[in-house]
Amino acid sequence: MSKSEKRYSRRDFVRKAALLSVAAPLAKTPMIAAAGSPGIAGDEQPKLPADFPKLSDQSRAEVEERYQTILKQYGGRFSKEQKTDLHRLCFLAQPPLDHLREYSIKNGDGPALYLKPSVDREKKPAKPAAVTAPAAKKP
Question: Structure pTM?
Fold first, then answer.
């Protein structure tokens, strides 16, 4: 190895790898929002029923990314009707996710729900109260 080549320490390598892993998704986000999906023009909104929720641009980009990811992995398995239904389901799944992300939590917050398993135990039948008749007195 010549002196002109730069040697990286493990610490430098980890630092650069961490920065790259954080920067890669952030760099990809504007392209998704601008490009949209292949079948949809950038300004054109997909035709959805009127009762569908209105989504922000960021949520819409996330829906399209989720849809494209599913098609990339399993696209050959779906018919055209199933792909349309999948796109609809991706849109319907987004509002609950947005609502869940609005909830703020801190590191010190405990879980909101504690698991308390219910154990079915057989209960012993209650003993009937013994009816005691007054003892007869002998004369």
Answer: 0.45
